[in-house]
Amino acid sequence: MKVSLFATCLVDMFHSNVGKAAVEVLEHLGCEVDFPESQVCCGQPAYNSGYVKESKVAMKRMIETFKDAEYVVGLSGSCAYMFHEYQHVFKGDPVWESKAKALAEKTYEFTQFIVDILKVEDVGARLAGKVTFHTSCHMTRLLGVTEAPMKLLNHVKGLEFTELPGKDKCCGFGGTFSVKMAQISEQMVDEKVQHVEETEAEYLIGADCGCLMNIGGRIDRVGKQIKVMHIAEVLNSR
User: Fold this and answer.
1) pTM of the complete model beyond 0.70
2) If both were cysteines, with which of 20, 208, 212, 233 could 136 make a disulfide (CB 3.0 to 4.6 Å apart)?
3) What angle do CA 157, 152, 14 make, to 5 degrees?
4) Closest CA to 78 of 12, 133, 138
């Protein structure tokens, strides 16, 4: 099965180890993975800030970049959902609506692809320790991916899982929200870190680098000894 990796900006610029781990997991599961180098930002920051016209430039670039892909796998539920949003952005456009719809139909979040398309729940991973999982807002509420990450984590050997209190609450990142509303965002992420501490977890796991960067940054600033990992890194642990 051929897979085109949609790395996202944060993975490309700050968390390349997550991209490498995802490729290794997919190859371990028998996929042929490529990385289209013409990919750019999906346009979400500009789009969510109201710059719809301007964001279409990036959207069209991404549609063209992945037009020949068999499957597109994204490492962020938020960014993967943005690909699904394209068809609504270009609704009524005689050229781009059909192309956007085609992209949406073959785009999946990383864990969603493994569980729903590859039909795999045990990738042979092993990680000893106490963990909890942060459910990012866009991935669960908009993309609708709720069960796939847990099905995969439940099969990781040595992993002791505790559900995160207030898991349905935002961590305070929200893209540009954390910049525009920094004081509110800080209070939200402090609450999230407090909940993580309550689980006594050694590892905080998530599927969106934006959330993990926000929570992990706060964990570092307040001096907590909790390791933050993207689920791709966990599934690549042997």
Assistant:
1) yes
2) 208
3) 100
4) 138
The tokens of 175 are what?
Answer: 């893209």
Q: Which residues contact 222 (CB under 8 A, 6 or more apart)?
A: 190, 193
The answer to whether 109 touches 207, Cβ cutoff 8 Å, is yes
Q: Can you tell me the distance from the alpha carbon of 44 to that of 93, in angstroms, rounded to the nearest whole number?
A: 19
pLDDT digits (tens, 9 = 90+) for 26-41: 999 999 999 999 999 9
Encode 34-55: b = buried (16+ Cβ within 10 Å), e = exposed: eebeebebbbbbbbbeeeeeeb
> Beta partners for 73?
5, 108
Rounded-to-integer distance, Cα 107 and Cα 5, Å? 10
Q: Taking 90 as the threshold, does the pLDDT of residue 179 lie above it?
A: no
Our CA dihedral for 35, 39, 41, 44, rounded to 10 degrees, sits at: -90
User: d(Cα 217, Cα 228) in Å, to the nearest integer?
Assistant: 10
Token pair of 145 as six digits: 């991916």
176 confidence band (pLDDT: 50, 70, 90):
confident
H-run or E-run covering 127: strand 126-133
CB count in 10 Å sphere of residue 57: 11
